[in-house]
Amino acid sequence: MTQQVSGPNYHTIGNTAVQTCGWTKNALRGEGTCYKHKFYGIQSHRCLQMTPVVRCNERCVFCWRDHAGHTYELGDADWQDPESVVTASIELQRELLAGFGGNDDVPTDRFDEANEPKHVAISLDGEPTLYPHLPELIEAYHDQEFTTFLVSNGTRPDVLQAAAPTQLYVSLDAPDRETYESVVRPREATAWEDLMESLAVLQDHESRTTIRTTLVAGENMADPTGYANLYREADPDFIEIKGYMHVGSSRDRLDRDAMPDHEEVVEFARSVQEHLPDFNVLREANPSNVAMLARDSDTMVPELAGGDQ
User: Could you tell me the CATH number of the domain that includes residue 34?
Assistant: First the structure.
């Protein structure tokens, strides 16, 4: 049964939740695309943003979500099988996009393409590695010829080792344990050690790998060298450094001045780059307030190289 949950504009079937990304809407209207198009070739109007589990084992200070009353305990979860999650997510995406049909600002062929999504960002909410069938879910999307972008907080390294998405993200939002405890606020005692193990998993992973860092002014921006040391150990293909956005319930925890401007994000990326000479490519996407470091100027997903919106 399809339902819209309270709070964020999510639509759900079982534990599967989908929300139409603002960049998907913009791309449909020809009003710009997500940074993942610029950096990696993802077609924003054909990208599906979802999660198989709306639960998280961290309470990041910069998270837009209201943490009060939320649990990450999974004992009461009635899990859907991977194929059902894929089917549900596509159905939900089509329902959410239905209002764009007949819109004069949306070309018919683009709307038709959007109704046949080909990219999935498993990153909407919660921690996807808490879903017990995540590797199989990624395989099920690949069977439907999707590219898969998985974003994890790194607290389940064994799951990340077993999963094989097109591009694997691990969030690293602190250069040391003390900052991690303050900013990420994990609910599990071994979270820092698990994250360090996940960084080690990235070293030899078969997927394209990315470390993502969310910068919060006054909270976790004091030690670019510390970040660089951890980036070096993980040896990812890409490093994304993104500015915190002052939205949702994060506004109850942080002042607006905790949101760094784009120049500060780029400056931080350059400070990191000084310690990582192999990452000599720096790209930025001002509307998304993100900078990306890479070794090779060709950062496109190979099968998407040259793709248009």
Answer: 3.20.20.70
